[in-house]
Amino acid sequence: MTILSSLGRASRSAPLASKLLLLGTLSGGSLVAYSDSNKKEDQQQQKKKKKVVVLGTGWAGISFLKDLDISSYDVQVVSPQNYFAFTPLLPSVTCGTVEARSIVESVRNITKKKNGEIELWEADCVKIDPTNNKVHCQPVFKDDPEASQEFSLEYDYLIIAVGAQVNTFGTPGVLENCHFLKEVEDAQRIRRGVIDCFEKALLPGLTEEQRRTKLHFVIVGGGPTGVEFAAELHDFIEEDITKIYPSVKELVKITLIQSGDHILNSFDERISSFAEQKFLRDGIDVLMGMRVMSVSDKDISVKIKSSAEVVSLPHGLILWSTGVGTRPVISDLMEQVGQGGRRVLATNEWLQVKGCENVYAVGDCASIAQRKIMGDIANIFKAADVDNSGTLTEDELQDVVEDINVRYPQVELYLKSKHVRSIKDLLTDSEGNPKKEVDIKAFESALSGVDSQMKSLPATAQVAAQQGSYLAKCFNKMEHCKEHPEGPKRFRTGGHHQFRPFQYKHFGQFAPLGGDQAAAELPGDWVSAGRSTQWLWYSVYASKQVSWRTRALVVSDWTRRYIFGRDSSRI
Amino acid sequence: MTILSSLGRASRSAPLASKLLLLGTLSGGSLVAYSDSNKKEDQQQQKKKKKVVVLGTGWAGISFLKDLDISSYDVQVVSPQNYFAFTPLLPSVTCGTVEARSIVESVRNITKKKNGEIELWEADCVKIDPTNNKVHCQPVFKDDPEASQEFSLEYDYLIIAVGAQVNTFGTPGVLENCHFLKEVEDAQRIRRGVIDCFEKALLPGLTEEQRRTKLHFVIVGGGPTGVEFAAELHDFIEEDITKIYPSVKELVKITLIQSGDHILNSFDERISSFAEQKFLRDGIDVLMGMRVMSVSDKDISVKIKSSAEVVSLPHGLILWSTGVGTRPVISDLMEQVGQGGRRVLATNEWLQVKGCENVYAVGDCASIAQRKIMGDIANIFKAADVDNSGTLTEDELQDVVEDINVRYPQVELYLKSKHVRSIKDLLTDSEGNPKKEVDIKAFESALSGVDSQMKSLPATAQVAAQQGSYLAKCFNKMEHCKEHPEGPKRFRTGGHHQFRPFQYKHFGQFAPLGGDQAAAELPGDWVSAGRSTQWLWYSVYASKQVSWRTRALVVSDWTRRYIFGRDSSRI
C-alpha cells in the first residue's frame, strides 16, 4: 500500500507525464489496474471533501489544526514558517534562559498524528481574493528561481490566522534601528545583539562615555513583553555577564520607556506597582509619560509629555515592543470587503469576516465586532412576545433569557457589574419587586446600559488559541449542525444560529519580573506576586507546551540555567 | 578589593580623564592613597610580566590558554569568535543530532577559573608585523563605526593559532554555490539548507525532475567530515524526515564524490572498505576517481578520471569538504619571513616560526619542518666522539642515543619500521653481531634511511590540542628552563636545547558511519567497527568536552534524539 499511496499523492501534485512514468515502473498490469480503481475511489472521496486553506501557523492556526478532524476536510496550510513557536517564552530566548529550538515544534510533527494528511507550504500569502475564493502565495525561497514561483490555491473555507506585525506608529528610524520581538529569529538576533554590546564595550580605544553608550539597553513599551525582556536582561547581566565581563559591570544601564503613567497597565494596579518597585530596587530606570519622537543608530529622542521637553538618550540596543500593526495582505483584504481604514479585520461572533461568509479570521489579525443588543431590542421583544400581547410575562421572558445571554456576551458582564444574577432581576418596579409583565419601553430601559460592557479582546496567545480551537470544533460539527443548529435563537429572522457564538474565557495572565519572581492575575480577582508565583509560572508554562519534546526541552533548559548559568557565546 | 581591582582594570584601559573622574568618586583620601600605592605595585608587577598575544580560540589556542599559567604573563587574545567550538561534532549539528549551543563554550568562561585575567577581543588579526613585534586587528562589528576601529597590539611572544580556511583548489563556482563545514555558523546554515530542500521539493508547480534535483545532496570529499555528514544526513532522512515528508521520500538521493580510489583514505584499508560497503547498503552513491571541474547554482560538473569524460549532476545542496587552505594573514606573514609560496607556516620542532624567534604557530596554520638527521650527521658524530678517535665506541654511542631519539623523532619511526629497538642494533657487522666501534661512514650508512620516515602531521584537532598544551607547558617553565635546559644536546653548537621538542602522540581516530555504527582506528594497529564502536565514540566524545556544561548538553542532546528524534523546524 505504501507504493500505491505514495503514487496517489504523487499523482495529485505532479503533471501527467511524470505520472505515466511512475506507473510505467510498476511491472504487474493487475497492480496498475488496482491502483487505478483505488485512485477513482480516492478521487470521489476528494470531491466530497471541502477544501480548507489555513493561512498562518501561530497560536490561532495551530489550535485550529490540532483540533480539526482532518479526515473530513482537504486541508492546505500556507505559512512562512514550517514550525509553531511558543511565543510567551520568546523573552526567555533573548537572553538564553531557554533555547530557541526548545520553544518550536514542526507543524508537520504536530499534525502528523491526526487521521489524515495536511499539506503545508512554506510561503507568504500575498493576496486574498474572496470574490473568486482564491489565495495567491509566494514561497519564501527568494533566491531560488524554480522554488519562488507564485502559486494560487482555491478554497471552500479560508481561515486567516496570519497574526499582526510590528507597529512603529510612524516613528522615524524605528524599523532601521530597533529590535522587535515577534518571531524566533528576532529573539536570536537580540541575544547576539546583547552579547555584541558587551564585546564592543571591551574593545580598546573606546572612551568611557562610548562604553557606557554601548551598554545602555533601552526598551520602548511597558507591556508584558517589554517588562519581561527588561527583567530577563537584568538577570542575565547580574547572574552571568558580570562574572565573565567584570570590568564593564558598572557601566551597564537598562531603561524602560513607557508612554502611559504605569507599566503593565493591562494588569491589576497592585501588579503594576509591585513591578515598578521591583525594577526600582533592581536599578532598572523606568521613564513614564514619555513619547518616542525618533530613533537613530546612536540616539533615541524622547518627549516628556508633562513638560513637552525633548531629550536624547544614546543607546547600545533598543527593543521596540509597543502594540501591533496590520499586515499588508490584511489591509488589502479590508479594502476589498469594505472594511478599509480599520486596524484589524472585523468578524462577527462566529469569527466570520464581515462581508464574506466562507472566510474566517482568528487571532491578532481580527477582532470581533460585537452586535449591540439595543439595535435588536425590538426584534427580541417581538420574538419573545409569543402571544403578541405587547407585554412580556415572566414565562415569556424566561424562554428567551438563555438565548439573549448566549447571543450577546456583553449581557453577562453587565449583570456582573450590576451584581445581579439574571435579566429578570433588572425588571423590577420602583420598590425592587419583580414586575409581572413588562412592555417594550421598560424592557428597553432595563437593558439600555448593557452595550457599554462591549470590550474588544486583547491580542494575546490565549485569545488566539481559544478562537482556533472554537473554530475547529464548529468545523467538525458543520454538517451535523446544519440540520440540528445548536446556537441561540435568531431574533430577527427566526430559527436558530448554526453554532453558539465564540465566548472568551480568561484564565489570567502572568508577568515574570526577574530574580525568580513573577506576578500573576488569576480569575476571580486573585492577584499574587513573588517567588511562589514564579513556580506557578514554571508549571503553567511547562504544561501548556505543544509537545512532550518541547516540554522536556524547556524544563531541561530551566534546570541547565540553574546549574550552569546562561551561555554567552556569540552564535 | 573589588572596587580597587575594578579600578585597576579601568585605569589600564581608560584614558587619564576618566581615571581621575573615577578616583574622584572615592570619598576617603586614605583609600585613594592606598589605591595609588597598590597601583604602583601592580604596575611593577605588570612591567615584569611578558606580553603574550594569542591569535585564535580554536583547538590550539584554547589548549594553550587552558594550560598556561596566566599569572606569569599578560595575556591578550584576538579571535573573531568569543567561544570555543568542539569541531568534531560539527557534522552532528548539521542535522540536529546535537544542538550548536551544546558544542560551544565561552572563552571567558573557560579561562575565568585561572589565577589571572585574560583580555579577549572579538576581532580578526589582519596583519602580523614580526619586525616591530606588533599585530594589527580589526573588530568584527563592521556596521558600528565606533566599534570597528582597527587597533594594534604589541607582543613579547606571539602565538598564531588562527587555523585554516576552506580550500577550493581554484574550482570555479565553489565559493558561491557550496556549503562548507568549518564553523558553527556553517553547520547551522547547512541544517536550514537541508530542511529548505525538502520544503522546496513539496511546493506546488514543480516537475518530478525538479523535485528530484532539490533532494539531491552532493558531498565533495571523502574524508572524515564528508563521510560523517553523509552518514548524518542519511540517518536524518531515514529516521525523521520520511515520517514528516512521506510524499517525497522516494526522491531523495545522496552522492559522495571522492577524487581518490577510496573514501576515508587516511584510515586503515579495512575501515575504508567497511564504510564503502555500509554506504552501498544505505543507498548512498559513492563516486570515486572523480574530479570536480566547476559548480553552478544548478549543476556540479565532474570529470571521470579514468575516461576523461565530463558529466553534469543537478543538485539541491553541496557540501564541499576537501582539504584546508591558507588564511590571507598567514600568506602575508609567510611572504615577510621568507616562506612565500608555502601552504602553511613552517616551524621548528619547538613550534617556533622559522625566521622569527618569539613567534610560535600551532594547529592547522602551521607544520613542523623536521630537521633531517643526515644534515647533522657529521656534527652528531663529532659530538659523540668524545676522545676524537675518529670512531665511536659502544659507550660513546650510548651517551648520545637518547639525545638523538629526542631531537629527531623520525628515528623512532624508522626503528619501528625495521623492527629493532635501538640505534645500536643498526650498527652490526655482516653476520649481524654488534660492532665494537664504528667510523663515520658506517654510522652514516646505518642511519641513511631514517629521514624517509619524516611525516608531516595531519590537520586535526588532536594535533592542534597537543601542540597548544605543549607550548603552554614550555611557557610555564620558560624562566626555569633558561637556567636548567631540559632539551636534548645541541649537536652543532654545543650545550642543550631549552626544551624537549614537540612530539605528537596519536590516540587513534573515529569515523561515525550512521545507523549507530562507527569505525575506529586505535593505537597499536587496532581496528574496530560497528555498534560497540559507536558507544566507544559516545564515551570518548563526551569525556573530551571542554566543560561540564557542554558535556551535560551533548549527552542530553543524544538522549533527546533517541526519544524525540531530530527537529526539522526551519530556524
UniProtKB/TrEMBL annotation, chains A, B:
Q: How does it sit in the membrane?
A: Peripheral membrane protein
Requisite cofactors: FAD
Q: Where in the cell is it found?
A: Mitochondrion inner membrane; Peroxisome
Assigned EC number? 1.6.5.9
What GO molecular function annotations does the UniProt record carry, in alphabetical order? Answer: metal ion binding; NADH dehydrogenase (quinone) (non-electrogenic) activity
* PROSITE patterns noted in UniProt: EF_HAND_1 (PS00018), EF_HAND_2 (PS50222)
Against SUPFAM superfamilies, the record matches this protein to: EF-hand (SSF47473), FAD/NAD(P)-binding domain (SSF51905)
Q: Which residues form a coiled coil?
A: none
Q: Which InterPro entries match?
A: EF-hand-dom_pair (IPR011992), EF_Hand_1_Ca_BS (IPR018247), EF_hand_dom (IPR002048), FAD/NAD-bd_sf (IPR036188), FAD/NAD-binding_dom (IPR023753), NDH-2 (IPR045024), NDH2-like_C (IPR054585)
Q: Which residues form the EF-hand domain?
A: 372-407
Catalytic activity annotated for this protein?
Answer: a quinone + NADH + H(+) = a quinol + NAD(+); a ubiquinone + NADH + H(+) = a ubiquinol + NAD(+)
Which top-rank group of organisms is this from? Eukaryota
- One Pfam family named in its UniProt record: Pyr_redox_2
Keywords on this record?
Answer: Calcium, FAD, Flavoprotein, Membrane, Metal-binding, Mitochondrion, Mitochondrion inner membrane, NAD, NADP, Oxidoreductase, Peroxisome, Transit peptide
GO cellular component terms? mitochondrial inner membrane; peroxisome
- Record-stated family: Belongs to the NADH dehydrogenase family.
Q: Can you say what this protein is called?
A: NADH:ubiquinone reductase (non-electrogenic)
Tell me which species this is from: Eruca vesicaria subsp. sativa
